[in-house]
Structures are given as C-alpha cells and as structure tokens.
Write a structure and sequence with these properties.
The complex is a heterodimer.
Chain A: H1 3-68, H2 71-79, H3 82-89, H4 92-98, E1 102-107, E2 112-119, E3 124-126, H5 130-137, E4 152-158, E5 161-170, E6 181-188, H6 191-201, E7 204-209, H7 212-215, H8 221-228, E8 233-236, E9 241-249, E10 257-265, H9 267-319, H10 333-368, E11 372-376, E12 380-383, H11 385-391, H12 395-398, H13 409-423, E13 431-437, E14 443-455, E15 458-467, H14 469-491, E16 495-500, E17 505-508, H15 519-522, H16 533-549, E18 553-560, E19 566-577, E20 583-592, H17 594-637, H18 641-670, E21 677-680, H19 681-689, E22 698-701, E23 706-710, H20 714-728, E24 734-741, E25 745-752, H21 777-786, E26 791-794, E27 803-809, E28 813-815
Helix pairs in contact in A: 1-9, 17-18, 19-20, 20-21
Chain B: E1 5-9, H1 13-25, E2 29-34, H2 37-47, E3 51-55, H3 64-75, E4 79-83, H4 88-96, E5 101-104, H5 109-121
Parallel strand pairs in B: 1-2, 1-3, 3-4, 4-5
Helix pairs in contact in B: 2-3
Chain lengths: 818, 122
C-alpha cells in the first residue's frame, strides 16, 4: 500500500475510533450519570405515591374512628334504629363527602348487623359485596376476636380491585361499658380514585395484584426479594420511560401483595442521545474536510521526499554500488534521515570492503594453515589443503562426505553426537581428541577445536584439527616411563626422594613406611626434622655444596624411627635445575646403611683394639722388657746387697705392670663383641651396686624406667664408677644416681660425697695408664660408652665429691611406659 | 769419660734411669733428661748436647717425632730414636725426620754404643 493511501486509511481509522470513543463515553459516562439521577427521581416519585396512599388510609381510619365514637352509632348497632339510617346512611351525598364506599356494622359477637354501600360511578346506594365480609373476618375481626382489632387498617383487594379498610370498636357513651361492636369503613381505589391521585401527583400510577402472571418475568427474582424487604425497584422501560415499583401488603392474615407502579418520563435521556448524534455527525464532516485539506501538504512535504529517498535507495540496491549516495535536500527530519542513510551506506560500503579483505585473509590463512580446517553442517562444506593431507582424501572427496565419515569407529558416535548437537544450538565442549582413519587405513590422533558460525547465511560448524599422533606417542612413552619409574622407586629397597632448596620433602617413595613414617606425613616437612641434631649441620653443609656446585654428592646421618631406633642413612643426591640452570631442589636416594655402619664401626673398633694391642705389646711391654734387661744388668754389675734388693723389687713391680697390661687387653677384647642393646638402667645399677653391699656406703637412685642404648658392658661402667668412688673417695658415705634433661638429650649423673678429683686430673683420669690402681677402669668406661656415641666427663668440685656426667644424645635413651 | 754430651728424652722414669746408667757405663756424659718436647728444647738450649736420644712416645702436646723435627730445623743436631716401633706408619714418620740412627727396644749396651758412635761420625 502506498504511503498516500496509508495516510488516508489511518485518518479514517482515527476518525472511526474517535466516534466509537464518543459513543462509549456518552453511553457509559454521560447517560449512566443521568440514568442514576432518573433512578433517584423515580424512587422519590414512588415514595411520594406510597405516602399519598398512606394518607388515604389514615383518612379512612380517622373517619371511621370519629363515627365509632359517636353515641348514636352505639345505639344503632344495639337497636338498628331507622332514624340513624335515615340521618346518616340514606344519602349518597354523605358517602361522597367522606369518600367512603362501604360502611359495615358488626355487633359485639362479630356478626354483621348492617351494611351500606355507595357507587361512586353512578352515585347510588348499593349492596356491599359478600367478599368484603370475608376480608374483614380475615383481618380486622378475626376468629376469636369478636370485638375486632381496634384501629386496624390497610389495603386489600376486593374482586381484584384495591381497597382501603379501617375498623374501630363502637364505643358506648359512658366509655366504661364494653364496645357495642365494630365499625368498618372501606374506600375503593378505583380508576377515578387513581386518576385523582395521578392528577394530584402528576405521575402515571397503577395498582394491581402481584401474581406470577402480573410479573411475567419483567421483575427479577432478586428485585422481588428486595421489594419484600421494603426496597423500591426502579428499571428503565425504554429510552423514554422509567418505571418504579414497590409492594403494599394487604391486611389479611394471609396477605396478598399489591404492586404499586409509577412510570416517569425520561426527557433528558432522549435529549442527550440527540446531542451526541449531532456531535458525531459534525466530527465526521470535519474529518472528511480535514482529510481532503491536509492531503496536499502531506504529499508535497512528507510523502514525496520519502518516495524520493525510496527511489534512490532502490536504485542503489539494484546497482549494488554502495559507494553511491541518496539526494540530500530540505532542512527537516527527512534531511536527517537522508544523511543517516548516506552514513549507513558508507558503513555498509566499508563493511563490505572489510568483509572482502577478511574473506581473502581467511582463504589465505586456511589454504596455508598446517592445521586441517573443516566447515560442515552434516556434509562437509569446505576443507583446506592441510585437511586433505591429514585425511588422505582429496578435497572433492571430502566435500561429498559427512563430517564423521573418516572418524575412527571408536569415536564416531561421540563426534557425530557433538556435531549434531552443536548444529542444533546446544552447548557442547569445543575441544575433543579422537582418532581418524585415513584413506590409506592409517590411524591418526586428532585434536579438534570446533565452534559454530554463520556460513553462507546458515549456521555451520568451523573446526580446526591438529594432528597430535606424535604427541600421543610421546605421552604414551612418558606414561610407560612413569610406570617404570614408579615400579623402580617402589620396589627398590632405597627411598627415593626430592626436596626443595629448604629441604622440604616434595616427594618420597613409600619405603619410608618401614620406619613407621607415612608418605603423607613426610611430604611438606623438612628432612632436618628427622635427622639427629648432631648430624644436621654436616647435612646442611653438604646440601649447600650440592646446590652450589651442582655435583652429585653423598653424606650420611642418623635418624630415629617411630620406635626410637637409630638408623644410619646414606644420602646420595643431585641438584634439580630448571631450564635456566638455576637449582630448585634436590633429588636422590636414601639408603639404610645401619648394618654396614655397624660393620664399619666393628672394623674401626677392631682396628682400635689391634692398635691398642700393638701399643701395649710392642711399646709398653717392650719398654718394660727393656727396663727388665736394664735392671738385670744393673744387678749383675752391683755388689751392694741393698741395691740388688731394690733392683729385684723393681723387677717385680715391672712384671706386675706387664701383667696388668696384658689383663687390659683381655678386658678390652670384650668391648664391642656384643651388639648394643636397650639396657634398663634401674636393673643395671641395681646389679652393679649389689657388689658393694658390705661397704657401708648409702646408694640412692631417682632413675625411673629409663633404657639406654649401649654396649652390654655398661654394667661394668657403673661398677667402675662405684669402685673408683669407694676406692679413692676416702671419706665417702653416699653415692647417688639421677637424670636431668639437657640441650642434646639426657644426662645420667653419678655423684658421691668423697674427696673429689683435682682439677688438673679431670681429663687425665680417662687416659690409659692413669691412676693409682690399674688405670684401666675409666679408660675402658669411656671406650664402652663411645661405641653408641655416649660421652662421659667429670664435673665435681674437688674436696666435696666426684660427679660423673654421662651424656646421652637423643636416640640413645628412651622412657619405657609400663 | 768421653767428652760427648748426650741428652735423654724419655718419660718413663725407670727406663730413663737405666738408659742413663748404661750411657754412663759406656763412658758418655749424660747432660740431662727431658720427659716432654718442650722440656727437651729448654735443655738443648741450656746444655748444648752433642747428641739426643729420643723416645717417640713422650709426655706433652708433641711426640718424639715432632720434637725431632723441630730440633733438626733449629739446631741441626744429631738425634737417635729409642723406639719399639720397627715398622708401620710411625717408623715412616720417624724416617722422614732424617734421624742419625735408630735403637730398637729392648736394647743393650752394645746397641747403644754402636748407634751413638755411628751418629756422631755422620
């Protein structure tokens, strides 16, 4: 549709909408507002009519009450004298004046004794209908109330015509006697009476009996129910009449309903409808004039410039030359639109150029890429030369294949599934590694990275595929090497480890579990935590040297296992270096050399023993033999008996020294023969001091549940300490044993209250040959203790007692919990 | 009695007395006896002996071999070792000091005299 026609249609539609809106507004707002006013007026009208009808009832009741209180009325009901009839009931004039149609007299027994009627139509006296007596007995003089209900009044229907009834007792002159009967007066509401009411109220009034036929569906059930409760029902009959309706209930014991209806004219409603019709016509006329008036300027200033732009754009689109521009003219929004179109054409032109360049780049990149490039939906849409080389198929063959055709059967399902899901817009992982079967049957591993893009206007998958067969082979080889390495490290008796530069374990093989240490609790902790404090410095020095020099090196140190057993460990390691050559840590093996170390210690000890034997036999004893030879020569040369006796004594002393030296070799031979073991010190001390029970010396011990890892000859050490104390302490009375914690472990102290040891002799007492006796006890004691790294020294105060301190490094003692 | 003055370096009292007795019987002049290297150096300066008879195992911080080494450097004096070491590393150390002789224990007068005379003639 042309813009010109479209504008006319829009204006027509707008006018129609305006008219519809006007109709809706007039109907739902203006007319409804006036309908409410009419409703209120109709309600007021019917209330006014009901008031007038009630006034009629009160008027009949007042007339009846006056007549019933008259004395001659009393006498008449008693004797029915004709004078009363003649004076009051014979003339139609009387009935016309008091507007009463029927008068009825009932005696005190409730029986009708006289009645007289009057026809308002022909102004004559007439008989009272018999139905009226029935109505009276159902309302004013009911059964059982012969005197009647005083003052009872209201409406009823007599042969379908509404009437007003009122009844009062006929009172006697002296007022003290009982009523003489009941006087009933009745006023018919016939057409003339209704007309009088219409004239007085200027309303169209009708009264009729309510019956299903009367209602005939005009009144709703809800409306009838509301009317029973006294409501007034107002409904519009048509556009010119509003009807108001209410009930009047008759006075019988079984009442009937009398429908009072008032019809009111609706002039305002009609006037408004007429006015709205005039307004709609005026609007329609103005709209037609407007359409024809604005059509020309619209065409000249808006439609034609837009059509010009449209023509220009069609010409540019047809030529495909986006470098052309549309004509720019005017100074309004259409000018701005033309400028925007020109700018957009420039951008399209630039974008086209960039797209062409991008496509050229893509083609160049794809054609020269070493990675295979595939574009596919189900069928392959594009491949590059690398894809041909990768698959062994020609480009023409590939372009006739589905994208999963050359995928290895083991991976075909997953590759096909992902490709199809991606094509349908589902989010699937971009990377996947799979095998392909080349045209020549060779299997190759491919690492594919795939995404989707718009290819020739439709969604397609773009996949870059790299041949990773060699990498897979290397990974496989690496995995096998790792398995070999793991098997090697986990099956070798040595512990394989690595640490960082601070000695923190970064890896340790499971063999550490034989020392009661779990891999998890060792990784992350320092190697120095497990090393004997005495060995840490040398290990630290060795690690620094390995890191700095980069050479393989080894060192040995001691560790404690979970059960406090000492193990000698030999560490062989090299530095770990990063690609720049910088050291990042250590890696190597830890070998348990405890057995070898014990063997070495045994050899060292044996060598030491041999040296001692050599010293004693070759040096000491040869010295003494030299002395003996010399003394013998001196005896031979002297003639003095005294000198000869002296030389002989010296020969005996020298012989005894030679004997003790030989005895030393025997004792010393026992040192180190048996392996070190855990010795319970309470038992060791008890056995040692049991040899001195008769000496009078008091022994004290505060040592509890301590075991010492030492040569079994440790009992001889304790024996020698006690023996020396008793032998050389002179004034000794007490020897005590105790322990105390030290920086490196524990100290076992043996002290007495003897004369002590001179300061100059504190170190010499441990030398071989020192002392007043054999000089061998403390020398041997030190040698025995030294086997497991235990040392002994004397720290007592000369004159106050000797104090031997046996230093037990960590690992050589333990507390036994019993 | 010879004019040759000998210094004995021996820490064993009885053995030193016997050596001194033998040397005196052989006609040598025993000018002193030291028990340690330091004491020997003092006597060397004071007595200026012609020859030193040196035991290897003596008291003090330095043994007889180290004492001989110092004597050789300071006094160029002849030294004869009195030792029970007939082989092994100790003897090798002693040889390195280029002594004028060795007398192996146990020894008699003849052993002493031959060693001293040979040393004095070198």
């Amino acid at each position: 549709m042309k813009i010109n026609h479209r504008i006319i249609v829009i204006l027509c539609v707008a006018i129609c909408a305006l008219l519809v809106a006007l109709a809706i507004i007039s109907h739902f707002f203006i007319l409804n507002t006036f309908t409410e006013i009419e409703h209120k007026e109709a309600t007021a009208d019917i209330q006014h009519v009901l008031t007038r009808l009630n006034d009629e009832v009160e008027d009949v009741a007042a007339t009846c009450r006056n007549w019933a209180q008259m004395d001659d009325t009393y006498r008449f009901v008693k004797d029915l004298n004709p004078e009363y009839i003649k004076a009051n009931l014979a003339e139609p004039e009387l009935f016309r004046n008091i507007k009463i149609d029927y008068i009825l007299f009932y005696n005190s027994s409730g029986n009708l004794v006289y009645s007289r009627g009057y026809s308002q139509d022909d102004e004559t006296i007439q008989e009272v209908p018999r139905e009226l007596d029935t109505i009276i007995h159902n309302s004013i003089i009911p059964e059982g109330v012969p005197d009647g209900i005083a003052g009872r009044r209201g409406f009823s229907l007599l042969n379908g015509e509404p009437v007003i009834l009122a009844g009062y007792p006929i009172t006697p002159p002296n007022r003290h006697e009982s009523p003489g009967g009941t006087l009933i007066m009745v006023r018919r509401l016939d057409a003339s009476q209704i007309n009088d009411l219409v004239q007085q109220t200027e309303l169209d009034i009708s009264l009729r009996q309510m019956s299903p036929r009367t209602n005939s569906g005009a009144l709703s059930e809800a409306g009838l129910k509301n009317m029973e409760n006294g409501a007034i029902l107002v409904t519009p009959v048509n556009d010119s009449v509003m009807e108001g309706t209410a009930y009047i209930t008759s006075i019988e014991n079984t009442p009937t309903k009398i429908l009072v209806t008032v019809e009111t004219a609706r002039p305002i409603n009609q006037h408004i409808r007429d006015a709205m019709a005039y307004i709609a016509g005026a609007i329609l006329l103005l709209a037609i004039i407007l359409i024809f008036t604005i059509r020309w300027p619209l065409k000249k200033y808006i439609v034609n410039p837009i059509l010009s732009l449209d023509t220009n754009m069609k010409a540019i689109g047809k030529s495909g030359n986006t470098s052309q521009q549309v004509t720019v003219q005017g100074d309004d929004e259409i000018l701005s639109l033309a400028i925007s179109l020109n700018r957009m054409l420039e951008e399209i032109h630039t974008a086209h150029q960039q797209t062409r360049e991008s496509e050229a780049k893509f083609r160049t990149l794809a054609e020269t890429s070493v990675a295979g490039i595939f574009v596919f939906r189900q069928k392959i849409l594009y491949t590059n030369p690398a894809a041909e080389e990768q698959t062994g198929y020609t480009r023409e063959e590939l372009l006739n294949m589905d994208f999963w055709d050359f995928v290895h059967p083991d991976f075909q399902e997953i590759v096909k599934d992902r490709g199809q899901k991606r094509q349908f817009g589902e989010n699937v992982p971009a990377r996947i590694e799979f095998k392909i079967s080349r045209k020549d049957g060779e299997e190759r591993w491919i690492d594919a990275s795939t995404t989707w893009f718009c290819y020739e206007g439709e969604r397609a998958s773009f996949s870059v595929r790299v041949d990773i067969t060699e990498r897979k082979r290397m990974e496989d080889a690496l995995r096998k090497n790792e398995e070999k390495f793991r098997a090697l490290t986990e099956n070798t008796p040595d512990i394989v480890f690595s640490t960082d530069l601070n000695g923190i374990f970064t890896y340790i093989s499971p063999q550490c579990q034989k020392y009661g240490l779990l891999v998890d609790e060792m990784v992350g902790r320092s190697i120095f935590e497990f090393v004997f404090p005495e060995d840490r410095a040398s290990l630290q020095e060795k690690i620094v040297k390995i890191v700095e020099d980069g050479q393989r090196s080894s060192t040995s140190f001691r560790i404690l296992d979970k059960w406090q057993n000492v193990h000698w460990i030999e560490e062989n390691s090299t530095a770990i270096r990063d690609p720049s050559g910088k050291s990042t840590g250590l890696q190597g093996i830890l070998r348990d050399i405890t057995i070898r170390r014990h063997a070495l210690d045994a050899v060292t000890l044996a060598n030491k023993k041999l040296n001692l034997m050599y010293d004693i036999t070759r040096h000491d004893i040869l010295n003494k033999i030299t002395v003996l030879f010399g003394l013998i020569d001196m005896i031979n040369e002297t003639s003095s008996p005294d000198e000869r006796e002296q030389f002989l004594n010296e020969i005996r002393d020298t012989g005894q020294i030679i004997y003790r030296q030989i005895a030393l070799t025997r004792d010393y031979q026992e040192v180190g023969v048996k392996s070190p073991r855990w010795n319970p010190m309470n038992e060791v001390i008890s056995r040692a001091i049991s040899n001195f029970s008769g000496t009078g010396v008091q022994f004290e011990s505060t040592i509890e549940n301590i075991e010492i890892y030492a040569d079994p000859l440790i009992e001889k050490v304790i024996y020698n300490l006690v023996d020396n104390a008793i032998r050389y302490g002179e004034k000794i009375t007490r020897i005590s044993f105790s322990t105390r914690a030290s920086e490196n472990g524990l100290e076992l102290i043996c002290e007495d209250d003897g004369i002590g040891i001179d300061a100059g002799a504190k170190e010499k007492i441990f030398e071989r040959g020192f002392g007043n006796n054999t000089g061998l006890g403390l020398f041997l004691a030190e040698e025995i203790l030294m086997i497991t790294g235990i040392t002994i020294r004397e720290t007592g105060e000369p004159g106050t007692g000797a104090r031997f301190v046996i230093s037990l490094p960590k690992g050589t003692y333990r507390v036994v919990v019993k | 009695m010879s004019d040759v003055k000998l210094l004995i370096v021996e820490d064993d009292d009885i053995l030193a007395r016997i050596i001194s007795w033998r040397l005196t019987n052989l006609g040598y002049n025993v000018c002193g006896r030291a028990t340690s290297g330091a004491e020997a150096m003092e006597l060397l300066v004071r007595e200026k002996p012609d020859l030193v008879l040196m035991d290897i195992n003596i008291k003090g911080d330095i043994d007889g071999i180290e004492t001989t080494n110092r004597i050789k450097k300071m006094f160029e004096m002849p030294v004869v070792y009195l030792t029970s070491h007939s082989d092994g590393p100790t003897l090798e150390r002693a040889k390195a000091t280029r002594p004028e002789g060795f007398v192996l224990k146990p020894f008699g007068d003849h052993d002493l005299r031959v060693a001293i005379e040979l040393a004095l003639k070198k």
